Amino acid sequence: MNELPRGKPMSPQGLAQQDPTRRNSQPDGPGTRGDAACARQTDLAKVKRRRRRIRVQARRRRFAQPALGEIDENSSLAEAIEANYFQTAVLGQDPGPYSPIHQWSALRDIQDLKEKYERGDRGALIDVAKHVAHHGLRFPEWARTPFVHAWREVAHYRVSSWDDVFGRKIPKGRHRSRMEKEFRLAFQIYSEITGMREKDKKSAPLSDDLFEQVGRRFGVAKTVCRELFEHARNQWKEPPLP
After folding, report:
1. How far apart are CA 225 and CA 216, in angstroms?
2. Hey, where are the domains in the chain?
3. Each residue's pLDDT tens digit, 105-131
4. Helix axis angle, 208-218 relative to 222-236, nearest 10°?
5. Nearest Cα to 80, choosing from 93, 94, 67?
């Protein structure tokens, strides 16, 4: 066997010239270049996938606390719906009560609670704290100082109970069990009537006959049925139904 010359390693083309039998064992030049190009394309595809994954993770981190700067009291319903679609359909998240549409609705409630507080309803501060905690919102400026002041009154033993700073939740002369029953019954009646109207509005107008029919199912008079229905509708801030 011929010994290869020592020194710098020879290229495949040089080896093929020294030994013609090696020519068939080496891949063609264009094939080698093609394999290298495929390898480069594979590497580029991996890089693109990695960059795409990083962008998606960055978006998810951005929307992990959607309340901080995403939806505020100046946002419109259309903006909230668009942000909610992006978060659920594009990012594939299920934020629950932290979703933009839930936050937008809670911010509307907080605006109404501000009016109640200005009319003297101190218990509105508790409802504001609930919305802030449940939907991940910022505590509004108008409610922060009064809420902290009320907490200090109780924490520093200047008053004997929370009722002294936030007012009584259950008015005098009312029973808690009865108010709880009316609260549950109001939304059951509301759901029943709205469900009937969605099926057929013409056959279920808001008439005395409808309230009498629904009230009979729940064991209340038609006047009580109408009052509970209106109470639930006001709680959900629905527009008046024809």
Report:
1. 9
2. 66-169, 176-236
3. 899 889 989 999 999 999 999 999 999
4. 90
5. 67
